[in-house]
Amino acid sequence: MPRIAKPRWNSGRRRWYGNVGERDETGRRREVFAPPEIGERDEAKAWEWFKTAQARDRTAKPQANDLLADVVCGYYLSWAKKQKDEGKLAATEFANKARHLGIFSDHLGQRVVKTLEPDDLTEFGVGLLDFYTPTYARNVCATVRAALNWAVRDKETPLDANPIQGFKLPTIPRSPADAPARADLDPDRGATGRAL
C-alpha cells in the first residue's frame, strides 16, 4: 500500500525528515531533513516545513517516460486526502481508495505508467478473483481507472492520456436463477429469516 508521505522524527539525528520526489532505481524517494530549530514536539512546524519541501520538489516535474504507477497512485491519494480534509470525501471512501491502490501498487506499481495497457488491468482484475469477491475486484479496478483519469486532468502530473483508456470493468456474475430463496430453505422462517 502506498505510504502517505508525512514528516517523521529521526531520534538519532534529532531532526524531522521526510521523503520527497520521484523514486530512484531502488524504489526510494529522496530523504530531506528539516532545519534543526524545529524541535521534536513541534509537529505543526514540521508539517509546515514538509509541505513546503514537497511543493518545492513538485515544481521539478517528473518525466512522463519514467513515471511509475505507484507514484501516480501516491499523487492521487494526496489529492484525495485533501478532499477528505475539506469534507468533500468521506473518510471511509478515502480508506477504500487507499486500500484499492495499495493492492494495485503491490502488483503493478513498479511499472512505468505509459507502458500499462487495458489488458494489463484486465489480467490484474481476473487475478483478484482468486482472493476477493467479483464486486470488490471490480471496485479495485474502478479506483485504478479513476486515479489514472485524475492524473490526466491534474496539471502537475505529466500524463497526456490514460494508458488504460478503453478498459471495460469486469461484469459481476449474477446469482443462478434456480437458487432457492432464503424463506424456501427453512419452512419455519418467513421472508425476514426470523422464526415464525
Description of the molecule:
This protein is mainly alpha-helical and 196 residues long. The chain has six helices and three strands. It folds into two domains: 8-58, no CATH class; 64-153. The chain has helices at residues 43-58, 69-85, 91-108, 118-128, 134-153, 182-185; strands at residues 8-10, 15-20, 30-33. The model has no long low-confidence stretch (mean pLDDT 78). The chain has a three-stranded antiparallel β-sheet, with helices on one face. The protein is elongated, with a radius of gyration of 22 Å. α2 packs antiparallel against α3 (91-108), α3 packs across α5 and α4 (118-128) packs antiparallel against α5. Keywords: DNA-binding. Residues 181-196 have a biased composition (Basic and acidic residues). This is Core-binding (CB) domain-containing protein.
Average pLDDT works out at 78
The secondary-structure element order is: EEEHHHHHH
Radius of gyration: 22 Å
User: How would you sum up the global shape?
Assistant: elongated
Distance between the termini: 48 Å
Number of helices: 6
Percent range for β-strand residues: 5-15%
Largest sheet: 3 strands, antiparallel
The helix fraction, in percent, is 40-55%
As for the number of domains, it is 2
Strand order of the largest sheet: 1-2-3
* Low-confidence sequence ranges: none
**Helix/strand-derived class?**
mainly alpha
Number of distinct beta strands: 3
GO molecular function, one term: DNA binding
InterPro entries: DNA_brk_join_enz (IPR011010), Integrase_recombinase_N (IPR010998)
Organism: Singulisphaera acidiphila (strain ATCC BAA-1392 / DSM 18658 / VKM B-2454 / MOB10)
Protein name: Core-binding (CB) domain-containing protein
